[in-house]
Amino acid sequence: MKKVLWIAPVLGLLLAACGGNTTKGEGADSANVDTTKLVGSKEVPDSTIYGTATDDFGMSTFAMVVDGTNDALYFDRGEATVSGGLRPGDRYAVTACQTENGPTLLTVINLSELERLTKDYRIVNGRLVIGGKSVKINRLDAKCLTGTAEDGTHIYIGQ
Fold first, then answer.
1. N or C: which end of the chain has fewer CB within 10 A?
2. Average per-residue pLDDT in the chain?
């Protein structure tokens, strides 16, 4: 019964992230989008899901245990934007939506790699926010983060 209780809110977030659509929205990729808006001009609550990757994923799938639970969520990777490496045991922030293939990832950010480089960040609706500016991640790995802020400023954080 506990599984059903936490799965319902997670599925609600998945559907809210997609706005009922099965394709990635234009606003989700735009560096100039307000991070609290995902679907047209409607404000939606933060749809980011946080958890730790399991070793049960492959080329087209991704699985993680959601923070605060002991149950894994399984996703189709689809054409997700993946920032950072995919390794079992690393923490991730993901957004997803429901498609004909089931829950499908839209964005994946490796928080373990990000936190080795900076602790001064937020994730809102699958978008990295540094210094109050939404940042489009160009590269994230164990050694550096590069990206472009919404005002065109280039971001580089390295070891």
1. N
2. 80
**Torsion on CA atoms 32, 117, 24, 153, rounded to nearest 10:** 20
The set of residues, in sequence order, having a beta carbon less than 8 Å from that of 78 and lying 6+ positions away, is: 99, 101, 104, 105, 106
Closest CA to 92 of 112, 75, 72, 77: 112
Say what the pLDDT of residue 18 is: 53
- Beta strands 81-83 and 102-110 are parallel
pLDDT at 142 over 50: yes
Q: How confident is the model at residue 42 (pLDDT cuts 50, 70, 90)?
A: low
Strand partners, 144: 158
Q: Give the Å distances, CA to CA, from 74 to 39, 48, 96, 102, 122.
A: 24, 15, 11, 9, 24
Q: What are phi and psi of 69, to 5 degrees?
A: -130, 175
pLDDT of residue 96: 95
Are 129 and 149 spatial neighbours (Cβ–Cβ below 8 Å)? no
Listed in sequence order, the residues at least 6 apart from 7 whose beta carbon sits closer than 8 Å to its beta carbon are: 71
**Which is nearest to 30 in space by CA: 127, 129, 155?**
127
